[in-house]
Design goal:
The structure holds two protein chains of two kinds. Chain A is mostly helical. Chain A has twelve helices and two strands, in the order αααααββααααααα. The longest helix of chain A has 32 residues. Chain A is globular. Chain A starts with a helix and ends in a 10-residue tail after the last helix. In chain B, the strands form two sheets. Chain B has a two-stranded antiparallel sheet with strand order 1-2. In chain B, strands 3-4 form a two-stranded antiparallel ribbon. In chain B, a hairpin with a 1-residue loop joins strand 1 and strand 2. The relative contact order of chain B is 0.18. Chain B is globular and about 60 Å long. By secondary structure, chain B is mainly alpha-helical. The two termini of chain B are 22 Å apart. Classes of the chains: A mainly alpha, B mainly alpha. At the A-B interface, helix 4, helix 10 and helix 12 of A face helix 5, helix 10 and helix 12 of B.
Chain lengths: 306, 338
């Protein structure tokens, strides 16, 4: 077990972490501002991936595909908000869960109808296909590094948007007291659509970015969605900072657990048992992390209304 | 005019009772008709409805009566199924289930499997409930979902029990005095369990415990003020709910002769939730109607188009947006306690 391997896995964990952050940020923003739990967030992730893969395949430009994933998911989000989600804000969580579950069925089957049952594949441009030498120690794929950079840039951008701009001020005011902000003349309906579209766009970007690492297929969004829920539970609902820290924690624990837990067990158990036990334990490691944090802080690390 | 209000309420209560009675009759008559007319397909469909309804009755106790929106009941359903599958696997294989000092063999005796599946689901519900009931609202939804997903991945990571491919049950598990491989007998067994569960939930809801559970949903502070701590009440409700759903899982595995991770998947949790909501949250027979409507809709749509899930989604969305209270709400008026 060399230092190189550890560093490489830490980078992999970071990459998974920022991906989860991109998903969790939209979820937590939508919950914080509108009080809505949105299961269909994974569908927006899938829409981003499909748009990116098909536009990139059609135009030959990966960058155009990325843009299409981002913008297209934002439009899809805005449409969903106006047609369906808007009617759910004053409903209880049960109705929200069921309605957005129905949206998942509609989007998954609709995508399967449009694109067929076979997965799409997305090729990277030459410029992103190589690997970069990190301090001369080891080689790491440029694209994965790029994802980490994009994720951090999005985190910084979101922070600036929410804490420094007029829109951000309105979003924060909407979290605190929605009657008051609409009484002050802010178009709260438009603000809600905007926040939802923003969350959708970030999820779409995440899907588009991941599309080049795995196959683009129906149902790719929901496993990520459930991981994003774990992230939010750990970080505290409604907190962007919590989402970032929770996401990186989950990304690191999951990645490092999968690589190192079987190795760790092989020190005390025979190899085949160690592989089985290690694999089982690492597949549940993040949920155990979640349980431990819940016992310590039932509202998550950075709960908004603690 | 209070008397008029009382009258309509009475009329609605009677209408719900009538509806419940009609449902029980239908549940008995339709399979009998199918059996007499040699239509095994419809008998199988009816058995599926009854077993899924049982899973829904379990969830309804937590969700409807106790207000605990669990999105993780597939965990209990799947665990019940895996108990049946794993026990049968070891009985078929002749290998012991555990050999730590004493050997625990597998079994294909249905009563043992049923008790075991109820016990396993109960213990896991106790652990999950202890942790997730510290939270409320959206946290609770997400945490139950996450724990169910954990058990799903655990099942996938166990190669002995089929991993992703699941575990076939080669021979239907056995029962003394009855031939459980006869579809009509198996249907009768499932229906008996469903009716017992309905009776249990009815008696529980009417008891002091049930009253406390409902107040825990409506006003936690008030419950605490009269000297009843809400947490143990909720936890008990959650555990009983998980046990009923676990039993349904064991029956379902035996019906299909197969258990796999799909029984534990999050979609399954969503489906069980749909039974409850489609039928009417908190109504005793709500899950029965919901499961029947869902299975019939699924079957009928599946015959019309490959993309039936699309239309199922549209119908569900319409029910949530425009038909609150589900089928029972449409027929027997709004629930008394909502």
């Amino acid at each position: 077990m060399s230092l190189t391997l550890i560093l490489e896995q830490v980078l992999n964990g970071l990459q998974l972490g920022v991906m989860l952050f991109l998903m969790a940020a939209g979820l937590t923003l939508v919950f914080g501002v509108m009080g809505l739990i949105n299961l269909a967030h994974g569908s927006l992730f899938m829409i981003g991936a499909f748009l990116c893969a098909s536009v990139a395949g059609w135009s030959g430009s990966f960058w155009l595909g990325l843009l299409a994933g981002f913008v297209g998911a934002a439009f899809a989000g805005a449409i969903i908000e106006v047609v369906v989600i808007r009617r759910l804000y004053d409903r209880d969580h049960l109705d929200q869960v069921l309605a957005t579950f129905a949206l998942i069925l509609i989007f998954s089957e609709g995508t399967r109808y449009l694109f067929g049952p076979r997965p799409l594949y997305l090729d990277l441009p030459e410029s992103l296909n190589g690997s970069l030498s990190i301090f001369g120690w080891f080689e790491y794929p440029v694209y994965r590094l790029g994802i980490i950079v994009v994720g951090i840039a999005m985190a910084v951008g979101l922070y600036l948007l929410i804490s420094k701009t007029r829109i951000g001020m309105q979003i924060r005011a909407g979290e605190a007291d929605r009657e008051m902000i609409s009484a002050l003349g802010v178009d709260i309906r438009f603000l809600y659509t905007l926040v939802f579209a923003l969350g959708a766009a970030i999820a779409g970007l995440a899907g588009a970015l991941v599309g080049a690492l795995q196959s683009v297929q129906v149902g790719m969004g929901e496993p990520v969605l459930i991981l994003a829920f774990v992230v939010i539970v750990i970080g505290g609902i409604g907190s962007i900072k919590g989402a970032l820290i929770g996401a990186i924690l989950v990304g690191l624990v999951d990645t490092l657990g999968r690589v190192f837990l079987p190795k760790l067990f092989s020190l005390v158990l025979d190899p085949s048992t160690a592989t089985t036990v290690g694999a089982s334990l690492s597949s549940v490691a993040i949920y155990l992390l979640m349980a431990a944090i819940l016992l310590w802080r039932p509202k998550g690390l950075f709960a908004l209304h603690a | 005019m209070p008397s008029e209000a009382v009258l309509t309420r009475k009329a609605l209560v009677t209408r719900e009772r009538l509806m419940n009675g009609a449902l029980v009759c239908l549940l008995i008559l339709v399979p009998l008709w199918a059996h007499l007319n040699d239509e095994p397909y419809y008998l199988g469909l009816a058995t599926q409805v009854v077993i899924l309804a049982l899973a829904g009755v379990g969830l309804n106790l937590a969700l409807g009566t106790g207000g605990m929106i669990s999105f993780g009941h597939a965990a209990f359903f799947g665990l019940g199924g895996y108990v049946a599958g794993v026990a049968a696997y070891h009985a078929f294989d002749g290998t012991p289930f555990l050999s730590l000092g004493i050997e625990i063999p597998g079994t294909n005796s249905l009563p043992v499997i049923w008790l075991l599946s109820i016990a396993v689901a109960g213990v896991v519900a106790l652990v999950i409930g202890c942790m997730s009931l510290r939270t409320t609202g959206v946290y609770f939804i997400m945490i139950t979902l996450a724990f169910a997903q954990m058990i799903y991945y655990l099942a996938v990571s166990l190669p002995t029990y089929g991993g992703e491919d699941g575990l076939p049950i080669y021979l239907r598990n056995e029962l003394p005095f009855f031939d459980s491989s006869d579809p009509l007998v198996f249907f009768g067994l499932s229906l008996t369990f469903l009716l017992c569960a309905l009776l249990l939930v009815h008696r529980l809801t009417g008891s002091r415990f049930g009253a406390a559970l409902q107040v825990a949903r409506m006003n936690e502070t008030r419950l605490a003020t009269v000297g009843i701590p809400p947490f143990p009440i909720r936890l008990t409700g959650f555990v009983v709910s998980g046990m009923i759903t676990g039993l349904a899982g064991a029956l379902y595995a035996d019906l299909n002769g197969f258990v796999g991770p799909s029984m534990l998947a999050w979609q399954r949790s969503g489906e069980i939730m749909i039974f409850v909501i489609l039928g009417g949250v908190g109504r005793l027979f709500g899950p029965v109607v919901g499961a029947a409507v869902f299975v019939l809709l699924e079957t009928w749509l599946g015959e019309q188009t490959h993309h039936w899930q699309f239309f199922l989604g549209l119908i569900l969305l319409a029910v949530v947006l425009f038909a609150r209270g589900g089928v029972m709400g449409l027929i027997a008026g709004r629930a008394r306690h909502v």
